[in-house]
Amino acid sequence: MIKKFIRKILGVKGRTNHEPDILGPDQHGIDPKMVSSNAVRVTSTLQEAGFEAFVVGGAVRDLLLGVKPKDFDIATNATPEQVKRLFRRAFIIGRRFQIVHVMFGQDLLEVTTFRGTTTDNAPKDEHGRVLRDNTFGSQAEDAERRDFTVNAMYYNPATQQVLDYHGGIGDIRSKTLRIIGQPEARYREDPVRMLRVVRFAAKLKFDIEPSTAAPIKVMAPLINNVPAARVFDEMLKLLMSGQALACLQQLRKEGLHHGLLPLLDVVLEQPLGFKFVTLALDATDRRIMAGKTVSPGFLFASLLWHQVLEKWNAYQAAGEFPIPALHLAADEVLESQTEKLALQRKIGSDMRDIWAMQPRFERRNGKNPYKLLEHLRFRAGYDFLLLRCASGEIDPELGDWWTAFWEADEVIRAEMVSAVSSGAGSKRKRPPRRGQRHKEGEEGGADAEAEAADDAQADEADDFDSAPPDSNGAPPKRRRRRGPRRNRRGGGEGGNGPAGDAASGQ
Question: How close are the terminal C-alpha atoms of the chain, in Å?
Answer without folding.
Answer: 51
